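#onboarding

Welcome to the new folks! Below is a worked example of what a typical request in this channel looks like: someone posts a single protein sequence, and someone else replies with the predicted structure as tokens. Don't worry about understanding the tokens yet, we'll cover that in week two.

Example request:
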Amino acid sequence: SQIKAINAQQAALVKAAGSAGTTAGTAMYGAGIQAAQGLVKGLTAQKKTIENTMLRIAKGMSAAIRKALGIRSPSRVMAQVGAYAALGVQQGIEAERSAVNASMASLVETPSPSAAYGGYAANRAANRPQPMRTVQLNAGDAWGDQVISLIRRRVGSNGGNVQFVLGR
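Example response:
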């Protein structure tokens, strides 16, 4: 009879524990729902404050990015990148000098010395001034010296003088 009483007590405890678990779970679930609803209500009530804070953060990020990139209209960092790009173009042209020379030669029609301006030799013999050719380049071009050198060689091999006008 005592074992029967213990088993009955144990069954009652299991039933009570199950009932307590269900009650606690339901209460926790309800509390979670209420907490989420409270959070949404609180965020909605603070919408303007949140938006203003987000705007301040965005402006701060923009200022930090401008500072990191050295942007001061124009960007100092991008100016350096541009300088490196120009040097890269210069190195590329130097590395492919023969291809550049061939391409430049195919773009320019240069008359032979005897046909040009009544003939280079005839102009020299007659002590006439040689025709002037003007080329304008922007001062400070990274590869300007290379272009000037190519043009001087081309003009010099066909007679005549060349004048370089450097502008800004």
